[in-house]
Automatic annotation (TrEMBL):
This is RING-type E3 ubiquitin transferase. Residues 106-148 form the RING-type domain. The keyword Isomerase does not apply. One of its GO terms (cellular component) is membrane. Residues 1-24 are annotated as: Disordered. Its EC number is 2.3.2.27. It comes from the Eukaryota. It is found in: Membrane.
Amino acid sequence: MHYTRISPVSLPSPPPTATATVQSSSGGNMFATVFVALLLPCFAMCIVFLIYLSLLWWSARRRNERLRLAEPVKPKTGKGLSVLELENLPKITGKELALTARSTECAVCLEEIESCQPARLVPGCNHGFHQVCADTWLSNHTVCPVCRGELAPKVPQFSEDHSQC
């Protein structure tokens, strides 16, 4: 038998199998899948948030327009006592107030009325206040700050046409 010597030939490497191709490409696909899975919900939440903000803006704008056009629930009179009516209210000192009123605490500023301080006594209910506090309150309101008793009917109204005599 005769043997021939075969020289070693470098054989090409076998082609990659299908499983190897899927494995190498699945790493890239998995990254893209995870990226899309995280990015899509974030993007959707941002869109929902923007829609929510626009609805809030729209409803606030509509409510402001409605309030501007609507009549107030309680009409603002803005009518307190006039300067002439305030002058007709009794003025006393803190010492006199201590003798006539139940309390010497001013319900407007919540401080004690000292004996030397000027005070006002509300007719009818006999509640006393610092003169400045009472004038400030009664120039904007026609009720006693303590009992909410109406003052307007009890205060004499003087017109310019009639004299006091």
